[in-house]
# Entry
Amino acid sequence: MKNKIDEIRELFETDLAAAGDAEQVEALRIKYLGRNGLVTGLTRGIKDIDPADRPAFGKMINVLNKTVKTAIQEKQNGQAGGKSVDSIDLTLPGRKPRVGGLHPLSQIREEIKQIFGRMGFAIVDGPEIETDYLNFEALNIPKLHPARDMQDTLYISEELVLRTHTSPVQIRTMQNRKPPIRVIAPGRVYRRDTPDASHSPFFHQIEGLCVDENISLGDLKAILAAFTREMFGEGTRIRFRPSYFPFTEPSAEMDMWWESSKGGRWLELCGCGMVHPKVLENVGIDPDKYSGWAFGAGIDRIAMLKFGIDDLRLFFENDIRFLEQF
Ligand code: DAH
# Structure
C-alpha cells in the first residue's frame, strides 16, 4: 500500500512539472482528483484496508490528497495572475475610476458661503420642521394675516410647519446671540407649489442677517453689491426697488441685469430690508440702540443663472447625465 502511495506521488510530481498550460493542469486535476482519479481511487480503497492499518494509511492518503490539491491550485493561480512584466502593455491608456462630485446646488451653496465667509459672516442653521411662531409670528406675520398667503404652506400640526423660508433662522440666531451679529443661513424650504420649470414644493434659500449699532441700508446695499459682483462678475448691474415684507421696514427687492440671447432684462435676485423694530423687540434686542438688515435669496435661482439652466426640476430628478456636467 505504501508503495502504491509513493508511486502515485512520484508520478504526480513528474506530471506536474510537465504540465505547461491551463488545459494540461486541468487534465492533471482530472487524472488525480477526478471521479476516477488516482488519488480518489486511493481514498475509496481505504475501506478495503485491514482495520488495524487504516488510520496510518488513511493519514498518508490524506496528506497526498492535500499536497496534490494545493499544488494544482497553486499552478492554476500562477497561470491566471502570474503574467510576466513583459506582457503588460504600459502604453495602454489607464482606466479612469468614476469619481463622484458635488451636486450643482451644493457647489453654489458652498461658493455663496465662501463669499460671505470672506466678509466675516458666520454660518448658522435651523430645522426644516419649524414652529408656527418662529416661521411666522416672531417675524411679524400674525395668524390670519394676508401675508401668509404669499407662503401657502405645508402644516404638520396647528403649531408646526415645514418652514416656508430661512427667515426663522434669523429669530433663532437673535434669541441665542447678542449683537454684533453677522450670519448667513443656507437651507431647504417648502411651499405648497405644483412643480413646473420655475416652481417646486421644496427649494433652497440663503438668509443673511446683520445686527449691530449704526447699521444702515447703505451697509445692506454694499454687502449685496459685493456679493453679486463676486458671484456673477465685476460688471454686474443691480438695482433696489421698494417692496413689502412684514419683517423688514423699509423692504426692498434686489434685481440684477441679465443679458441672454433673448436680450437683457432685470431679474429678481432677493428680498431684503432693514429688520423691523418689532422683530428686534420680539427677541429682546433694543431697537433704539441696535438696527440691522436682512436678506433672503434663492440658491436654486442663482444656480440656474450661473449654469444657464432653464428648468428647476432638473436639479431634483437626479439624472446622472445632467449631474455629471458639473
Ligand atoms: N423670506 C422671504 C421670502 O422667502 C425673503 C426675504 C425677504 C428674507 C426680506 C429676508 C428679508 O431676510 O429681509 O420670500
